[in-house]
Structure formats: C-alpha cells, structure tokens
Design a protein that fits this description.
Its EC number is 2.5.1.78. This protein is 43% helix and 19% strand. By secondary structure, it is α/β, with parallel strands linked by helices. α1 crosses α5 and α2 packs parallel to α3. The protein binds ligand DLZ.
Length: 166
Amino acid sequence: MAEETVVKGLGAAASAVSGAGLRVGIVYTRWNEKVIEGLRSGCKAELQRLGVDAVVEKQVPGAFELPFAAKAMIEGNVDKVDAVVCVGCLIKGETMHFEYICEAASQGIMRVGLDTGVPVIFGVLTCLNDQQALYRAGLTEDGGHNHGPEWATTAVEMAVMKRNCN
Ligand code: DLZ
C-alpha cells in the first residue's frame, strides 16, 4: 500500500522556535466555554513549552469582542505583549449571526495586527456544528485535533519574525 501523504496542516518551522524573551497574550471568549477551555489551555501549555517569559490572559464575552480586546492589550500600559492569540469559537445557528460575526472577527483581528504592528493570531474556529468544534478542540472520544498548540507556535514564530525585522 502507498505511504499515506499528509497534505493539510502546519508544517515544521525551518528552525526551532523559542519563546524566550517574549510575552504573549491570549484573549478568549466565554461563548462556547467547553470548546474554548480546550483551545485556551492547549495554546497556553504550548506557549509555556516553547519557553515564553509570560502568558497574559483576558476573557471577553464573544468572538465579536476579540479584536477590541487584542488592541486594548497591545496598546495598554499594563500587559505589554509581543503577540496576541485570539481564541474563539463560532458555531452556525439558524440566523445570519454566524456570518456577520465570522466576518467582523476575522477582518477585525487582521486589522489590529496590521494597524499595531504586533502579530495577532486568528485562533477562531468557524464550525457548522458542535461536533466540528469539539473535534478541533481535542474533545472528541478519538482525541480529535486541538488547534490551540498550533496557534501558540504561530504566535511565537511571528513574534520572533517581527523582532528580527527591527
Ligand atoms: C451572539 C452570538 C452568537 C449567536 N453566537 C456566537 C458564537 O457562536 N460564538 C461567539 O463567540 N459569540 C457568539 N455570539 C456573541 C457575539 O460574539 C458578541 O459577543 C455579541 O454579539 C455582543 O457583541
């Protein structure tokens, strides 16, 4: 049988990423709490494994509020950060809410990063049902695939990239 080829997913970084000297923020939502807890804790554990100096966490109500919170964290004097991971989970319902919030959150998160010059990572699941969300937070019986650790790696990689450009 031919060897299985994995196509999707985050490939290995060219060199090992270290979080030494970095402070990384996680802003996360209260909406869809169970899924968020899996993602947030997976992200935080990976940031710590990568050796970041500090993880600063702030909670917001929903995904719509994530860009504002990321900007406040970046521009505030209290918790200076080198990157922010926005952790959220949108699950499609019966109305158009899903579409509007997905659009606002994704555009807002991108804008905060570009406007402030601090990497802001899109850690928002946009799922069609609960099962998709649970799987992507590593909470299904088969273990699923928790995306939180990948967002941590991305935050550290981008913060190091930014630092090397200065
Ligand atoms: C209103 C709403 C809905 C319907 N669904 C979600 C969701 O699946 N995930 C999420 O993070 N937030 C949701 N929200 C709340 C909005 O993001 C926001 O908090 C409110 O509209 C107030 O601005």
